[in-house]
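INFO  loader      accepted 1 record
INFO  loader      residues=352
INFO  predictor   begin
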Amino acid sequence: MPTMADVARSAGVSVATVSHVLNETRPVLPHTRQAVLDAVEELGYTPNTLARSLVTSRTRSIGLAVSAISNPYFTEILQGVEAAALEHGYSLLIADPHDDPDHERKVVQLLHERRVDGMIVAPSAAPDGLLAYLGRHAVPTVLLDRVIDCGADPAPRFDQVCAENTGPTARLVTHLAALGHRRIGLVAGLPGLSTTDERITGYRQGLAAAGLAPDEDLIVSGHSESTGAERAVAVLMALAAPPTALVTANNAMTIGALRALQTHDRSVPDDIALCCFDDFAWADLFSPRLTAVAQPSRQIGAEAVRVLLERLAAPDRPARTVRLPCAFVHRTSCGCPQQPEHPEPSREGTLS
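INFO  predictor   done
INFO  writer      dumping tokens
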């Protein structure tokens, strides 16, 4: 196996120069750098990652802590993170916190102990322990998908990357209202998550824009999971005046809602209209095809990596929150006739 000394002899430079080129620890003249890279390629030299980390204090690795990795939404985010990390020469260490605050704190500590250069974390509904650990150890971190309310502090402590939630949810509600629905139910997500709160806010805004009075009985938590959504829809169907339309607040709950509606002999869209937040690969294979809000999942993952690398390059810059736009995908589960599918952007992304 070729060594760094072999590379140095082939390139006609010192071992120290090879080290500076490979570890990017000191500027090297372009022609010298190219000679080293050519020698590396010719000899098939593979750098010793552990030795490099001892020299640079960097492991060129990123820790990713995301719950429900089996969820297609988070799977696509993971793909975006992985592709962007590899593009910039970083490896990825992945952990699933299972949306459990105690487990979340443990897996983040384990990732930190493996000397990752920074972390991308989708926080749980009770992230105080997580945030305290990250802050105490000054771990460069990007919070993903779920944002943290800074309270009275106008400057966020962590960089954050997420999708727009409020406007796109309102768009689903106003679409159903425009079709004549006056009782529109919401199967909401896990209490305490920012995505849940923002989509409930969007639901209320949509009702207000359509001139509809809110009915708290029509908002039921599905706890962001399929079985929870089944129970939530059963509650809605048991109302004296059940909803004629439903908005489900994530893809897992959409599956549970469809299963519950089938159990209650409700046909979509003949008996009840359905729109969902989260598009997914097989949403257009259902009959009827699902009208949905599509999140830019892979872009969210790639953007989180970009923001983290900028943080590593400039540790003292102000933290920021990046929101990416979603798209309204009009299909037939709302009761509309089939039409060409052209995702409609809901609004522009924002940066704060």
